[in-house]
Amino acid sequence: MYSDSLKPSISLVAGVRQIAAKTPVFDTRAIQKLDSAHYLHPFTDFKQLNEQGARVMVRGEGIYLWDSEGKKILDGMSGLWCVNVGYGRTSISEAVYKQMEILPFYNSFFNTTNVPAVELAAKLVEISPPQFNHVFFTGSGSEGNDTNLRMVRRYWDLLGYKERHVIISRHNAYHGSTVAGASLGGMEGMHAQGGLPIPGIEHIGQPSYFESGRGKTEAEFGIEAASWLEEKILAVGAEKVAAFIGEPVQGAGGVIIPPATYWPEIQRICDKYGILLIADEVICGFGRLGAWFGSELMGIKPDLMTFAKGVTSGYLPLGGVMVGDRVANVLIDKGGDFNHGFTYSGHPVACAAALENIRIIEQEKLVKKVASETGPYLKQQFASLAAHPLVGYVDSCGFMAGLNLVKEKSNVVHDCVLFTPEQNVGMICRGYMFGNGMIMRAVGDRMIIAPPLCMSVVQIDEMIALIRLCLDQTLADLKQRGWV
Ligand code: PXG
């Protein structure tokens, strides 16, 4: 339990909205000190964080968070792309508590199973595209992509194609932080540490119109970006290529939304060479793009789909792979033992959380809302930010959106004058966002959001007003520095 100095007490701070009366108040400095002393955070410069002290989040409700200082924050990133139904859903906590009381754990090895895992498998099959009738559970998205790597190689081995082991992915993709996940991903900073990628993984360019589409229409660029896959297949040798993996919309890479022509062309190329298509739906799944899965929106028919995050809205760790009939039938009919799995595959409590989370998404029609009500409204409002003097390019897809900060605007997107990476303008802007109680991420100079799917039209207005205010403050700051 808490040491005395960390014990929560009830906030009675004047001026904090009524809802914050429930927010426990902690001794921030004491927690930061302990945090620095013992906790190594993910993707963090430890020394720098220790000097500055971590922000301590203590409570969440709907689309809002409160930190240990009682500050209310609008979470434009759904935690880490995952809290799709928003914070504070007591029905999920109740489902979890109930399952913990009945059966907190049992494994799915040695011919055993548990009721929530079975029910969830059936539910996932129900909401997935028709080619999916099976699921393999993991504890995270990274483990899901490790599973993909082993599964596609096993699939081709079983069919007698021992050479077909190469998986093609994209630069700036994010597929996780395990050795296979980081190798499949295309993050240079990750590859630079630990001798990655592992052999048998190749990367092609990402379909970023803003970065690479100069002189072309979006439609033309989509076809060109897909052609890089065919070039790579021919360079590697088609007989060696097992699969292509991609996020329908790249998340961590900076909300890279491909032109509408891109994914159908990728599908055509995969089909032409008989290559398996893996959609990494860890961010795009569970309604984020206004469909249960991003693949449906992009018009593709993947053989495997990785999921995690939104499956439980992040309330408990859970991930997995939806396994299409093409792969499942071979594994089942010819496979014998598949020597792969995790202690927490099909964890009953995580599965109970997922079932209740999906029930909420269905009951509140969140997928439909994002498709036809709040999603289009967010698109329209977010697009209005393009009028701001700092904003050179804006795009969005469902509840994922991004804008590029530029030094000088131009009607021709590719003629915008950019800031230098050293100026770190995205981080300056992010600082104003945090300062004003708004979580908006910076990926370079691209500012991105992926809000909870339960966000209302009124809350979208509140968020856009906050973003606009922060853009104004960033502009004033940059003017003062003489950068614009
Ligand atoms: N695939 C995709 C598309 C992801 O976004 C993973 C796999 C790995 O999932 P796990 O559950 O193993 O983390 C992710 C995770 C960021 C950020 O900075 C994004 C993720 C994780 C950490 C940071 O945007 N996405």
Main sheet: strand order:
6-12-11-10-9-7-8
Distance between the termini: 52 Å
Bound molecules: 3-[O-phosphonopyridoxyl]--amino-benzoic acid
Reported for the largest beta sheet, the result is: 7 strands, mixed
The CATH class of the largest domain turns out to be Alpha Beta
Number of H- or I-type helical stretches:
18
Query: Radius of gyration over alpha carbons?
Result: 23 Å
Q: Using DSSP, what is the number of strands?
A: 17
Could you explain how this protein is built, in words?
This protein is α/β, with parallel strands linked by helices and 484 residues long. It folds into two domains: 55-85 and 369-481, Aspartate Aminotransferase, domain 1, CATH 3.90.1150.10; 92-363, 3-Layer(aba) Sandwich (Aspartate Aminotransferase, domain 2). 40% of the residues lie in helices and 16% in strands. It has 18 helices and 17 strands. It has helices at residues 28-38, 46-52, 78-81, 90-102, 115-127, 141-158, 179-184, 188-191, 209-212, 218-236, 262-273, 294-298, 325-334, 348-363, 366-372, 374-383, 425-435, 457-481, and strands spanning 9-10, 24-25, 57-61, 64-67, 72-75, 132-138, 166-170, 201-204, 241-246, 276-280, 304-307, 319-324, 391-397, 400-405, 438-439, 441-443, 446-449. It has a seven-stranded mixed beta sheet, with helices on both faces. A four-stranded mixed beta sheet has the order 3-4-5-15. Strands 13-14-17-16 form a four-stranded antiparallel beta sheet, with helices on one face. A hairpin with a 2-residue loop joins strand 3 (57-61) and strand 4 (64-67). Helix 4 (90-102) packs antiparallel against helix 14 (348-363), helix 10 runs parallel beside helix 11 and helix 17 crosses helix 18 (457-481). It is globular and about 70 Å long. The structure holds 3-[O-phosphonopyridoxyl]--amino-benzoic acid. The site of 3-[O-phosphonopyridoxyl]--amino-benzoic acid (PXG) has 17 residues, from helix 6.
